[in-house]
């Protein structure tokens, strides 16, 4: 595990699922962790659990789509621990509408959380990082940002976030702030275990299984650490090889079976 002792990390969407695992791993690596979520009671419970285990963790209620909420959250983090070194923009929602079935209100809401939230967050945190000498921003993208996703709003918002990551990397490079993204494949957590798509996706994934939240967190720990000091503007898929050629591998198997 990377050593993040002395660093301060803000993690959004951190009260459950992958976000909770990221928060736990960052705390265990020595970082002070601000667990930010609209679900404040769940965030507080996680912070209390981590604090009881001897880690520096605290909860902040945050609506990522609100600039005012971001400003209040950042001010609270600075008041408590004095700086921000790492931002993990993990908050996200999914709408399962297609091009023709997506409700425009849901389209706007999905973009508001998945893209606007990260945009506002980066703009709020970057000046604080600059004052502290730099930092690392990590955006949670998705496997959906690498292909024609069935769900229009979700897929489009994640494509846009992957592009925004590169734009921010260039915008903030002179402030010694690195900006990267991580694109998880299907990561099995308590939130999706047993869903009908879990096993089919595992079968299509070249490594033959779905991922674990700990594997996403490990990638983010690396990007947050000084070991990644020359890496910015990149997207790192954590997907068992899916984006590398899942379709080609599947077709290859069919050809081999019928040869």
UniProtKB/TrEMBL annotation:
<dbReference type="InterPro" id="IPR036291">
    <property type="entry name" value="NAD(P)-bd_dom_sf"/>
</dbReference>
<dbReference type="GO" id="GO:0016616">
    <property type="term" value="F:oxidoreductase activity, acting on the CH-OH group of donors, NAD or NADP as acceptor"/>
</dbReference>
<dbReference type="GO" id="GO:0006633">
    <property type="term" value="P:fatty acid biosynthetic process"/>
</dbReference>
<keyword id="KW-0560">Oxidoreductase</keyword>
<protein>
    <submittedName>
        <fullName>Cyclopentanol dehydrogenase</fullName>
    </submittedName>
</protein>
<dbReference type="Pfam" id="PF13561">
    <property type="entry name" value="adh_short_C2"/>
</dbReference>
<dbReference type="GO" id="GO:0048038">
    <property type="term" value="F:quinone binding"/>
</dbReference>
<comment type="similarity">
    <text>Belongs to the short-chain dehydrogenases/reductases (SDR) family.</text>
</comment>
<dbReference type="InterPro" id="IPR002347">
    <property type="entry name" value="SDR_fam"/>
</dbReference>
